[in-house]
Fold:
Amino acid sequence: MSRSIDLAVIPGDGIGQEVVAEGLKVLSAVLPQDVKLETKEYDFGARRYHATGETLTDADLDALKGHDAILLGAIGDPSVPSGVLERGFLLRLRFAFDHHVNLRPSKLLPGVATPLAGEPSIDFVVVREGTEGPYTGNGGTIRKGTPHEVATEVSVNTAFGVERVVRDAFARAQARPRKKLALIHKNNVLTFAGHLWTDVFNRVAEEFPEVTTEYMHVDAATIYLVTQPERFDVIVTDNLFGDIVTDLAAAVSGGIGVAASGNINPSGEFPSMFEPVHGSAPDIAGQGKADPTATVLSVALLLRHLGYEAEAARIDEAVSADLADRTGKPARSTSQIGDALAVRVAG
Amino acid sequence: MSRSIDLAVIPGDGIGQEVVAEGLKVLSAVLPQDVKLETKEYDFGARRYHATGETLTDADLDALKGHDAILLGAIGDPSVPSGVLERGFLLRLRFAFDHHVNLRPSKLLPGVATPLAGEPSIDFVVVREGTEGPYTGNGGTIRKGTPHEVATEVSVNTAFGVERVVRDAFARAQARPRKKLALIHKNNVLTFAGHLWTDVFNRVAEEFPEVTTEYMHVDAATIYLVTQPERFDVIVTDNLFGDIVTDLAAAVSGGIGVAASGNINPSGEFPSMFEPVHGSAPDIAGQGKADPTATVLSVALLLRHLGYEAEAARIDEAVSADLADRTGKPARSTSQIGDALAVRVAG
Ligand SMILES: CC(C)[C@H](C(=O)O)[C@@H](O)C(=O)O
Ligand SMILES: CC(C)[C@H](C(=O)O)[C@@H](O)C(=O)O
Structure:
């Protein structure tokens, strides 16, 4: 049987180039001989925006659509006004390809530093809704720039959108040993959206009697993430709360240098996209200082999504071993870390 | 000269009763003989809601309006559906009395445990907008309970509302030794509200050339709060982001047992309200287990607001001394802590 992966690669801005190169290095090293890997690189981000004014065109989407998956480095540069690339590229892609499951695992691996005292045991995954909530770009501004300006943002939540992501989270919780699922929202203040989320959550819970559930307000959740992170197994939450808690989760479980994410379209109608949680870090770009681990772990998520479970597990193990080995050693360059991981997954 | 404080006292639900009693004990002990303290207790919260169906009536607001300030314990009980008391009492009061400066100091005092490793130095204050943003209750639901339900939440932001709170925060930063102010928002995604906040912030900054400013996205802010909390001096942010970052800030700087807050109407047109950040904690209510420190520190904020700076400082010092003294000692009851603080402020 001959197998193949047709990958769209978007290095993007800043350190994106460097970390994606290492991600691909590890991907090539881990794949069995019989799997044909094809990659096509796309130039998106600040350079393209400055050259053409474009962020992501319909033709781009058509081209990307044909791939099995997308690997993204990072998008964003201080030379571009805030929001242009985020809304024009990253969010446009997530929405166009209906990436409604934004998957962000947090695991504190042995040997990895955490800002938390003690030795917390952290191993949970956040299922962040990716196509609704305050991220839809609904809203507007009147009397802009005047003392009477009014600016609104509309969070849009649908039973359809909430139910599919809640269902995905329950299925993930059901498949894990601890079988726990926490819903994070702010249903005591955002009562319209909050009650929709809570009602749907409680209804779907009846289909998963083995899953232990809890509800927590987003403010309280930030407290638990630093005082009792071991409490969490699977978390499901809306787009904005998910953005916030996953950065905090990354911070407590080893930093955004090791935080991976998948923007998943579970039906497979569109390619899913995998990217490190960190940004383009223009301050250290081009210096070989970026840690490619988050990208390599995103490659593992990508492989798992495409059905290459054994290869994904080999990457996870290689990363664990590499991180455990770092203590007391001098810092390595981006490509040195990539090389080391490539050797480990191949061996 | 004869002075007086006419205080509305709202013990509320759960531990609210217990902690407010200690707050008043310390308040009486710290006030000079010549200050006449009058208190009137109001019964709001779950009990009243169950008995009458009322949360806060126009007549209640009229009565409260006559006081110099309000001391609140906590509102909330599991027997009341989520949102009823929050929207019907707490937020109604904040909005009716135009409490647009929600002030939440975070200071890690010597001897106080933090979940963070190392010995971070934490001393900042969050100025949270209190009358706009996603808290306005704008939004709604259609096709409720059906597979086609759509629920919206509208964040409303006005130049008027943003500018007054930003200006307040700049003035506070200007008055502090480090003179630093950080704006927290998510202007790369919530571009309508985000740009209003950023534009107003940058414009007001020109009037405060001595204040060093920075902007940070709310997700990144949660990272800094656990990895570099010493970075912050004054933070200004919107109502929802402020809710989230102040709980996290409380968690890293000693827990919500010591987190105080003021809901301030700076013009004095309406009485300001002071309350601990923690909730009603029904699980430990009535057992004398609650730490009244957050309420006592809220009393200090109240005194400072009314111009009793020396008395406020005495409470702050008493709390510092009490906390520094706790290590290795057996836990005390709510009233024992209140007694100890009352002795310290009197002495
Ligand atoms: C860059 C930004 C649009 C994005 C988000 O808010 O989703 C990022 O913070 C993330 O978490 O992937
Ligand atoms: C109880 C709730 C309405 C409130 C808020 O969200 O403002 C609380 O969390 C707070 O921070 O004072």
Q: What stands out?
A: The longest strand of chain B covers residues 3-12. Chain B has eleven helices and twelve strands. Residues A 86, 90-91, 243, 277; B 188-189, 219 surround 3-isopropylmalic acid (ligand 1) (CB under 6 Å). Chain B has a mean pLDDT of 97.
